[in-house]
Design a protein that fits this description.
16 helices; 11 strands; Cyt_P450_B; 9% strand; heme; Cyt_P450_sf; 401 residues; monooxygenase; Cytochrome p450; iron; six-stranded mixed sheet
Length: 401
C-alpha cells in the first residue's frame, strides 16, 4: 500500500477558479503517492509528482482498462460521469496492438500538415465570432461567444456533422464528462441518444461519403467496423470541443488576470506559441486527472503501488513540480522548453493535441489583433468554476474591450 496521511476527499477544492488546490504542493512534498477517497466512497492512489505521473502514463502495466478489477469498475461507473464507462471506452481497443492500429488510422487526420492547412479557416471563424461579440456590445461572455462555438465548428467540420446540432452535443458531452450533475439513468439515456445519432450519421456517410474523417475510415481498403466508427465519432466530438472550449476560456482568463501578461503579448506577438504552452502547464483547474489500473505490484523510489489499485494521475499537479520546472508557481510566457504533461505522454497521449494547439494559438492571435484592449469585466477571484466537470472549466469569462 502506498504511504498515506489521512485519506483526503477528491477531487480537491480550488480556492478560486484560477488558483491551484493547496493540497498539490503539500502532497508533492510529503506524500506523492497518497490515498484519496472519491465521492462514490471508493479509494484510489493519487500521484502529484512530475516523474511519477510521467512514469505511470508511459508504463504499459498501468492500463486504461478500468473494468479489469472490481474496485476499478466501481470507480469507473460511479466516478467518471460516464466518460470512463461509456460505449466509447468499451468499443475502441484500450490497449495493445488494437489500440495502436486504431490510433494510427485516426491520427492521419491530425498531422501538423493538416493543422497548418486548417489554421486560416479557424482564424476566419474566430474573426466572425468576434464580430458578433462586438456587435452585441460589451461586456460579453468570451466563453459563450468564442470559446465554445469555435471548437464545435472545427470538430463538426472535421467529422461532417452539422454545426446546428451543437447544443445537443453540449448536453451529451456534459453527461459524459460531469462527475456530479447527473444520475446514472440520465447518463444512460443521453449515451443512448448520442449513440443513435452517431450511428445514423455513420450510415449517412456510408451512403454518401464526403471529405471528412469518418468517410475516410469508411472507404479504406479495410474499413473500420460501424461500432468502432460510432465510438470514434462520439469520442472525437466530446474531446474535440469540450476540452478545447474550456481551455480557451481558462487561457484567456489566466492571461487577463495579470494585465502584464496580456501587455507582454501585445508587445511581442511571437510569444503566442510559448504562451499557449505555458497556459496548458499552468492550468490550475484541469478537472479529474487521468485514471489508470494496475494488476501487478509496481515499485517506485518512495512507495509501492499494489496490484488491484486504481491510480489517478494529476498532470496539473505534476506541471507545478519545482523539480521539473524552474519557478513552477509562476506563469512565464517565454518558458522553453516546456515539457508539460497536459496532453499526457506515451501510447495514450492526446490524439488531438495538434488540433488543440492550433485552435488555441489561432484564437489568441486573433484576439490580440482584434481586441488589444480586452480585459476581464470581473475580478479574477470572482470567476466561477464549472463544478464537477471531468476536464475542468470556467462557467463564464465576462470581458470588455
Amino acid at each position: 500500500m502506498a504511504d498515506s496521511e489521512t485519506v483526503a476527499e477528491y477531487p480537491f477544492v480550488n480556492p478560486t477558479a484560477l488558483e491551484p488546490p493547496e493540497e498539490w504542493a503539500r502532497l508533492r512534498t510529503r506524500c506523492p503517492v497518497s490515498t484519496v477517497r472519491l465521492p462514490s466512497g471508493d479509494e484510489a492512489s493519487l500521484l502529484t509528482r512530475y516523474d511519477d505521473v510521467r512514469q505511470v502514463l508511459a508504463d504499459s502495466r498501468f492500463t486504461r482498462q478500468l473494468d479489469a478489477g472490481a474496485g476499478a469498475a466501481r470507480i469507473a461507473a460511479n466516478e467518471s460521469g460516464g466518460v470512463f464507462n461509456s460505449s466509447m471506452a468499451s468499443t475502441i481497443p484500450q490497449a495493445g496492438p488494437g489500440h495502436q492500429r486504431w490510433r494510427r488510422r485516426v491520427s492521419r487526420w491530425f498531422t501538423a500538415k493538416r493543422m497548418t492547412a486548417l489554421r486560416p479557416g479557424i482564424e476566419a471563424m474566430a474573426n466572425r465570432l468576434i464580430d458578433r461579440m462586438v456587435e452585441r456590445g460589451a461586456p460579453g461572455d468570451l466563453k459563450a461567444g468564442l470559446g465554445f462555438p469555435l471548437p464545435v465548428w472545427v470538430i463538426c467540420d472535421l467529422l461532417g456533422v452539422p454545426e446546428t446540432d451543437r447544443d445537443r452535443f453540449a448536453y451529451w458531452s456534459d453527461t459524459l464528462l460531469n462527475l456530479t450533475r447527473y444520475g446514472q439513468a440520465e447518463i444512460d439515456a443521453a449515451q443512448a441518444e448520442f449513440t443513435e445519432y452517431m450511428a445514423e450519421h455513420v450510415a449517412a456517410r456510408r451512403a454518401e461519403p464526403g471529405d471528412d474523417l469518418l468517410s475516410s475510415l469508411l472507404t479504406e481498403d479495410d474499413p473500420m467496423p460501424d461500432a468502432a466508427l460510432v465510438a470514434t465519432g462520439m469520442g472525437l466530438l466530446v474531446a474535440g470541443h469540450e476540452t478545447t472550449a474550456n481551455m480557451i476560456a481558462k487561457m484567456v482568463g489566466m492571461l487577463l488576470a495579470d494585465r502584464a501578461r496580456w501587455e507582454s503579448l501585445l508587445a511581442e506577438p511571437a510569444l503566442v506559441r510559448t504562451a499557449v504552452e505555458e497556459a496548458l502547464r499552468f492550468d490550475a483547474n484541469p478537472g479529474f486527472g487521468m485514471p489508470r489500473y494496475v494488476s501487478e505490484d509496481v515499485e517506485f523510489d518512495h512507495a509501492t503501488i499494489e496490484a488491484g489499485t486504481t491510480v489517478v494521475c494529476s498532470m496539473a499537479a505534476a506541471n507545478r513540480d519545482e523539480h521539473a520546472f524552474a519557478r513552477a508557481g509562476e506563469m512565464d510566457l517565454t518558458r522553453s522548453p516546456n515539457p508539460h504533461l497536459a496532453f499526457g505522454v506515451g501510447a495514450h497521449s492526446c490524439l488531438g493535441q495538434s488540433l488543440a494547439r492550433t485552435e488555441l494559438q489561432a484564437v489568441l492571435t486573433v484576439l490580440l489583433r482584434r481586441l488589444p484592449g480586452l480585459e476581464l469585466a470581473v475580478d479574477p477571484a470572482e470567476l466561477d468554476r464549472v463544478e464537477g466537470l471531468a476536464v475542468g472549466g470556467l462557467r463564464t469569462v465576462p470581458v470588455r474591450w
